[in-house]
Amino acid sequence: MARETNGNTRARSRPYDAPMSTHHASCSCGQLSVDCDGDPVRVSVCHCLSCQRRTGSVFGVQARFARERCRISGASTAHVRTGDSGGVITFHFCPACGATVHYAIDAQPDLVAIPVGAFADPGFPAPTYSVYEARQHGWVRIDGEIEHHP
Length: 150
Ligand SMILES: [Zn+2]
Ligand SMILES: [Zn+2]
Known about the structure:
- With 150 residues, the protein is mainly beta.
- The chain has a single domain (22-148), classed as Metal Binding Protein, Guanine Nucleotide Exchange Factor, Chain A (Beta Complex), CATH 2.170.150.
- It contains two helices and eleven strands; from the N terminus they run αβββαββββββββ.
- It has helices at residues 9-13, 49-55, and strands at residues 22-26, 33-37, 42-46, 60-66, 70-73, 77-82, 88-93, 100-105, 111-115, 129-131, 147-148.
- It is globular and about 35 Å long.
- The relative contact order is 0.21.
- Bound molecules: zinc ion (2 copies).
- Residues 27-29, 31-32, 94, 96-97, 99 line the site of one zinc ion (ZN).
């Protein structure tokens, strides 16, 4: 049973009306940020070489949210990339510190993708898809309930 924290009995009797949690993403310097209401519609790991280059890590982890639930603030510079699968993606990064905080996938205009690391939240929902595993580094292991795609 959820603990009452605000005296709002309506939230208890109609749980689907309970206030949504907000996830806050930001760049390294804090200038560029996104507030997302509710949970992401998809969280995935991508091992493609483009994601490796973009992140500087050996895979990318990203969450997609409904665009209408995201509020973006701060200045950003855009970089357009054609991914390994041919899709066009526009990355928005902070011009001061360089961190990518949100990006738009041409094929999914109603969604905003956000690198999970930008949330700096170890409790963030885990990924459920792992894609481009053909390009996964040999020492990487992705465990848990997750779909694996080559
Ligand atoms: Zn920044
Ligand atoms: Zn990728």
